[in-house]
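We were asked to recover a plausible sequence for a given structure. The inputs and outputs are reproduced exactly as logged, with field labels preserved.

PROBLEM: sequence recovery
POSITIONS: 360
GIVEN STRUCTURE:
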């Protein structure tokens, strides 16, 4: 009997709450909803739209150790020697962290970008500093901030450089630092742990700029991965090139000495001349052997460099987006209408809600 009474009271209270809200329908129809709709539209339409373009690629993950037949034999016993080999210090899961490095980020400064309407064709740094749209209140705040900042002049150089006159990626001016932070917010690199797929997403206020940025980040990332994985092999190639060049010079020098000796000592059969000639021939043969050996090692180093150079498979190329990615204007306005409706209903029925909860 008591449970039925409580249930009856709750049902009556819910109906009463609905009636009271219906009685205040004019408040929603003529004040709350129109004002909320206008303010929400005024706010969201002041925020510039942005576009996103993404690309996906898979780098070739080579086996630097080359287990060969031993690996095949071990695999027949369920042993994976590949897991025992030394892996790269920078594995693919760390690629997203590259955006935290100033050296990788400011490499995007000189990238040429062009808007879809063709009105802007400049570098990315200039595009971010002079060609961006902002809400009107941001402009007001920036004006106030600049006015306050003018009262406290800063002697900091506009572009921080090293003593050699070149820009240092780790010594940026305030403006360069702000642009670098903006780039980090517009470009995202992700790695799928299961498939090893690298995803690149670029955001911009123009669809063509977003596509160009995605392509540029992909190229920079491919170059970084290639440079990293081939660093040791490239050093070896340069080392053997220098040794081979030096050996070639020495061989050419001994060949010229041998030729001069023959020209100046024709028809001489004295033993000391024969001994000198034999010594020159031996020295020339030794220099030639050294040179050919170094050339063989150079070719081996080049082959290793080619083997270490990763190949990339592009799963999805960056394309020019047709529709903006945000802000979602209709969803925002709808969300604000629902939110203000709930808040207003709670304010109107707060006493009844408290009373219902107390009786329950």
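RECOVERED SEQUENCE:
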């Amino acid at each position: 009997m008591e449970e039925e009474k409580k249930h009856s009271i709750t049902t009556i209270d819910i109906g009463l709450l609905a009636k009271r809200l219906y009685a205040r329908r004019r408040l929603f129809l003529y004040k709350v909803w129109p004002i909320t709709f206008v303010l929400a539209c005024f706010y969201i339409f002041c925020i510039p739209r942005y576009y996103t373009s993404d690309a996906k690629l898979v780098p070739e993950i080579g086996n630097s150790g080359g287990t060969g037949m031993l690996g095949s034999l071990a695999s027949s016993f369920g042993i994976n020697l590949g897991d025992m080999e030394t892996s790269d210090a920078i594995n693919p899961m760390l690629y997203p962290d590259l955006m935290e490095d100033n050296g990788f980020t400011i490499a995007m400064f000189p990238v040429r970008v062009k808007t879809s309407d063709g009105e802007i064709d400049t570098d990315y740094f200039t595009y971010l500093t002079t060609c961006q749209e902002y809400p009107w209140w941001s402009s007001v705040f920036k004006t106030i901030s600049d006015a306050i900042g003018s009262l406290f002049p800063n002697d900091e150089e506009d572009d921080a450089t090293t003593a050699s006159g070149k820009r240092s990626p780790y010594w940026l001016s305030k403006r360069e630092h702000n642009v670098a932070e903006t780039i980090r917010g517009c470009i995202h690199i992700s790695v799928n742990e299961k498939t090893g797929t690298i995803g690149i997403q670029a955001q911009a206020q123009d669809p063509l700029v977003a596509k160009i940025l995605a392509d540029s980040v992909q190229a920079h990332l491919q170059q970084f991965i290639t440079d990293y994985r081939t660093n040791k092999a490239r050093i070896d190639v340069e080392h053997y090139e220098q040794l081979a060049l030096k050996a070639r010079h020495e061989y050419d020098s001994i060949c010229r000495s041998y030729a001069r000796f023959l020209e100046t000592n024709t028809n001489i059969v004295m033993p000391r001349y024969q001994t000198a000639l034999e010594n020159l021939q031996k020295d020339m043969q030794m220099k030639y052997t050294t040179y050919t050996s170094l050339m063989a090692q150079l070719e081996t180093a080049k082959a290793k460099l080619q083997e270490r150079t990763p190949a990339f498979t592009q799963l999805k190329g960056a394309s020019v987006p047709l529709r903006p990615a945000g802000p979602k204007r209709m969803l925002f306005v709808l969300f604000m209408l629902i939110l203000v409706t709930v808040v207003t209903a709670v304010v109107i029925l707060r006493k009844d809600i408290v009373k219902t909860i107390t009786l329950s």
